[in-house]
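[step 3/7] fold_predict: job queued, chain A
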Amino acid sequence: MITGGQRSGKSRHAEELALRLSPHPVYLATAHLWDDEFRERVRKHQQRRGPQWTNIEEEMYLSRHDLTGHVVVIDCVTLWLTNFFYKTSDVDQTLKTVKEEIDRFTDHDATFIFVTNEIGSGGVSENAIQRKFTDLEGWINQYIAQKANEVILMISGIPIKIK
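[step 4/7] structure written:
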């Protein structure tokens, strides 16, 4: 698991790690393309990766994809979680559903590199929905970190091994 703030170098580090582990890794993109600016951001990410990557776009059900034997970058948990939470705004239901999906997906024999954000490191939001989502993200990050063999915190492009 690779975590950190926005523009901390998480995705780039995950991609470099994946390429050290496999000549042909898989990039599992979870983003929903909300607008043109975000579409352009995704395009730049895609350009950065070369032809050795297999790219899969999956907004919700990662377990649909049997990636046994592959090195897989899941980028990112925050956007993936948003896709579930957006449908219900129910923290408990989303937490249950996402944990079950993580378990189904990681049940395959593969190397998974989860990229996620540390959104709870800032102040407490005045927005109730944002507070709920921050709590949800924190709990999911804890769940993934508990299952992970390694956890890396990115700060200003520098990887710091946590676990």
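[step 5/7] annotate
Strands lie at 2-4, 26-29, 54-57, 71-75, 111-117, 152-155, 158-161.
The chain is about 45% helix and 20% strand.
exit 0
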